[in-house]
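so my prof wants the structure for this chain in the tokens format not the other one, which i didnt know existed until like an hour ago. anyway here's the sequence
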Amino acid sequence: MTLKIELEPEIEKKFRETAMKKYGYAKGSLSKGGSAALQKWVKEEDSTIPIVDDPLSLIEGMLKHLRGKYTSVELQHEAVRLWATKK
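here's what i got, hopefully its the right format
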């Protein structure tokens, strides 16, 4: 699978250097480094994220005061904003 991400130039430079030092200067070293970095990040983050059976139950009632004032798309954006600030 291909995943494209945008990095700050300094982070990209350090990542390239580190991946090539660890995995060699051959084809695939950046992929190996990226995969290792993402696996480590997922493992760390996965242990901090609570398991939720019904995600809708977490936001149930949070948007009640906005009923009839916004479109469904605007409500989705508001829900995302509320979800992001709740963490």
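also thought this was worth mentioning. The chain has two domains: 9-46, 55-86.
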